[in-house]
Amino acid sequence: MNYYLLFLLMALARASPYGALQAACASMTPGHGFNPQNGTSPFIVMPLTSEIIQNSLVPIGLSSITSDYFKGFFIMAFSDNSSKPIGKFSIDVDGQSMSCFNGMDNAATHLINDDKSFVMLNWMPPYDFVGSVHFRTTFVKNMSHYWVSIKSDPVEVIQFFMPSSAAHFSSNSSLGLALLIFIVGMI
Ligand SMILES: *[C@@H]1O[C@H](CO)[C@@H](O)[C@H](O)[C@H]1NC(C)=O
Ligand SMILES: *[C@@H]1O[C@H](CO)[C@@H](O)[C@H](O)[C@H]1NC(C)=O
Ligand SMILES: *[C@@H]1O[C@H](CO)[C@@H](O)[C@H](O)[C@H]1NC(C)=O
Ligand SMILES: *[C@@H]1O[C@H](CO)[C@@H](O)[C@H](O)[C@H]1NC(C)=O
Description:
Pfam families: Reeler. The structure is a single chain. The protein is an alpha+beta fold. It is 16% helix and 33% strand. The protein has one domain: Reeler domain (Immunoglobulin-like, Sandwich), CATH 2.60.40. Strands 2, 4, 6, 7, 9, 10 and 11 form a 7-stranded mixed beta sheet that branches. It has helices at residues 3-14, 24-27, 173-186, and strands spanning 43-47, 51-53, 58-64, 72-79, 88-90, 95-98, 107-110, 118-124, 131-140, 146-151, 155-158. The termini are far apart. It has 3 helices and 11 strands. It is elongated and about 65 Å long. One 2-acetamido-2-deoxy-beta-D-glucopyranose binds next to helix 3.
């Protein structure tokens, strides 16, 4: 990589308007030098499902529940057992994925600090992960007002069982039909 590009990337990474800094990985704070708000957050992190089959995406909404806007956000996913973020985020507009603790895309942050009332993103569990996860999000309203590590409701990532009786389905028309409808419905 040429040095000019490297310098440019470093300069961009330092500029908070373009998303959270690497330092936010550990603290989940924006590092503006103000204390976090202790009151109820006007912003919530909302998985759009409470249960998902392993190896599939969890859609997540970051939403204002008042008339307030947020400018910045920083989100990570945790299993109940682990203090390290897990899985990968993808986000089309309003944000970018970010890599923390030598992971890959295991966090997400805003792209520009304009006013937002709702942001959609997706999270993919680690390959074959099964268990309970929750999301933690820091919302930044402005330089002095931010809410740290707001916790979501849990999402259960459940195992996909390939029915062992699949061979019998051809001899059981109602169950076979139900499975066919299920499979076609998923495509
Ligand atoms: C929140 O509580 C902590 C600990 O009591 C305090 O240090 C901090 O100043 C409080 N934040 C605000 C914005 O008042
Ligand atoms: C997580 O913890 C539960 C109980 O505390 C345990 O049964 C489970 O095996 C653990 N999962 C992992 C991946 O460590
Ligand atoms: C930041 O947000 C707080 C809470 O809504 C508000 O009272 C304050 O005036 C805002 N500060 C700036 C600089 O806009
Ligand atoms: C086929 O369906 C019947 C009910 O119509 C059920 O009693 C039976 O257990 C099913 N067979 C298999 C192999 O699932």
